[in-house]
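User: I'm preparing a small set of examples for a lab meeting where we compare how different chains pack in three dimensions. I only have the primary sequence for this one, and I'd like the structure in token form so I can line it up with the others. Please keep the answer compact; I'll paste it straight into my notes.
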Amino acid sequence: MAGSEAAWQAANMGVQVVIHEMRPEIETFAHQTGKLGEMVCSNSFRSDDDEQNAVGLLHWEMRAANGLIMAMADRCRLPAGGALAVDRESFSDFVTNTLMDHPNVSVEPGEIRDLPEDGHWIIATGPLTSSALGTAIQAETGAERLAFFDAIAPIVYAESIDMDVAWLQSRYDKGETEEEQKAYLNCPMTKDQYEAFIDALLAAEKTEFHDGETAGYFDGCLPIEVMAERGRETLRHGPMKPVGLTNSHKPEEKAYAVVQLRRDNTLGTLYNIVGFQTKMKYGAQTDVFRMIPGLEHASFARLGGIHRNTFLNSPTLLDDQMRLKSKPNIRFAGQVTGVEGYVESAAMGLLAGRLAAAEILGIHLDTAPQDSAMGALIHHITGGAEAKTFQPMNVNFGLFRPVDGLKGGRRGRKDRYKAYTDRAKSEFSQWLKGQDE
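Assistant: Understood. Below is the structure token output for the 437-residue chain.
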């Protein structure tokens, strides 16, 4: 995501760009193709609400900046209530073809194993940085590689879901169209079914870690069994919460817990189990997931998995132009910088691409203003975060500077969030306008 967006932004500023892609020559655990912009976890870019949600605001800023990732996401959009979800195969096809058709972009297959000494480079290797390049980065920075474990949710064939049990509904009927209001499949559980599911989840065989590895999970992508270990009710108040949903088959019965599945492709033939990232072994996954009402005979297009993600201690290593302090000809972008999520990664690519191109063209360009969503993120990872406890971060309003005169607490949240987004849009628009002048 980050590399694709960076290339697009720099190329549109008139700079010749070479994308180095190691896949499929060098494979990763999570990727299945050699396409650019391949989605390996969810097919969702999360909330598209640009007035009350920080992620939606980031969508707005990227669209305003002629972002490739948002343009392709809008082109491949699927019904998902208030979220922006896409057909992942069409999305990666469009990203790849659009970049390869750009006159200022070329793609060279093969792995970059060392940090280049000259030229302008953006390292946007995502969370799955190759071992050789990771070792080179470690040698240059003198810091140990920081790692967390990111888990992939399973995907189910729609035809194998029992629709006499499951029903279509977005939580609280969100969405402006009937299609959006029915963007999710819901599988209800009674209390006894939920308790049996938790027991099986806790008892299932899990993937073992290699010697010396520890599981430093990012809280936004916790495996379901790790959540269950934190308390038997954790899942029921997380991805399996039953609120905002009414069983169309039995409207008088209130489910104790609900498993949601979100459409994963345009045809509607694939659904991913929302929030069900897992490190269970494959055999255990099929046994446990078929305990879910409606999924008793489920066929899986992809089972869940787990992989190690690598990220920099960016507050100590990067300047506010996203350059490596010890080698300023190299910038980093995307998840490797310590942001979490497709949107955040692509946003950091957008910034890195523009900053690098401006430097090549001899133009001074300040980084995005701090009161914008992009600016709040870049400020956090390059100095605002505490280096000793630095962990991957999604964009959120907690990263924004307060707006004077607004009420705190939950009651004032709606006005406060609107003030954040209004201010951000104004500041970001001025930043873009300054680059056009």
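A couple of notes for your slides: Residues 2-143+312-436 form a domain with the FAD/NAD(P)-binding domain fold (CATH 3.50.50.60). The CA atoms of residues 198 and 231 lie 10 Å apart.

User: Perfect, thanks.
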